[in-house]
Amino acid sequence: xxxxxxxxxxxxxxxxxxxxxxxxxxxxxxxxxxxxxxxxxxxxxxxxxxxxxxxxxxxxxxxxxxxxxxxxxxxxxxxxxxxxxxxxxxxxxxxxxxxxxxxxxxxxxxxxxxxxxxxxxxxxxxxxxxxxxxxxxxxxxxxxxxxxxxxxxxxxxxxxxxxxxxxxxxxxxxxxxxxxxxxxxxxxxxxxxxxxxxxxxxxxxxxxxxxxxxxxxxxxxxxxxxxxxxxxxxxxxxxxxxxxxxxxxxxxxxxxxxxxxxxxxxxxxxxxxxxxxxxxxxxxxxxxxxxxxxxxxxxxxxxxxxx
Length: 307
What we know:
Blueprint: E1 8-13, H1 15-18, E2 21-26, H2 30-40, H3 44-51, E3 58-61, E4 65-73, H4 84-87, E5 88-96, E6 99-104, H5 109-119, H6 127-140, H7 143-160, H8 169-195, H9 205-267, H10 282-303
Parallel strand pairs: 2-6
Antiparallel strand pairs: 1-2, 3-4, 4-5, 5-6
């Protein structure tokens, strides 16, 4: 009798009630995997791929079964998670004549939902339909993070034009770009799985729906990648513009003080024969010259609209 998914080995469907077997293994031991491998004649390479924590999505059709690896989005531990292993968890599937096996290290709530809504109600009539439901759940797991990333990008876009920006802004933008790139790569690698799903029975409506969902998610993350790239370009342009403005102000100050420094330098040399040193009006004349030069520079700047 089918049982609800829990830690360990669970039978979600059986041939008497559902017409096929669905065995779900959560964090199986090597002994459990070996037992399943012997029972269903699984290849050693498939077992090795099941044990690889960071394995990327793949589709492999063997003589007696089809072996699939998918990765679903898992809540990251912190905002700076940016690797495949940190952002996603792996689920391996073995589909054969009259059976499907799912293997994963962590409990995954969508499997419970598939069991309650589809398998238990006899709406999942074949291993292929069970595969379609699992693939759908994997693709839907990327929907919530897409909304979150889009919201975060909007917040950064508001901040990028403000004068008082937060220090870790560039770091945050970098990690958002990393997340989007990782998920885009996983969706690209998952395309082969989506494309090669066999239509259950004589209808391809479910598989067409899965393909549309994959295209939608891929388009969403393509748009996110484009937005974050544009935002980074704007960020650097704004930063460069502000740097240029600072250099411009410093340049204006230097233009004003350079001739004044030149005048001070001349009369600070204290040569023995300098007529102006014995001139009673020398000091006010020097000050007046400095004021005149400053006024002339100011007039020149205003005339050219540089101030």
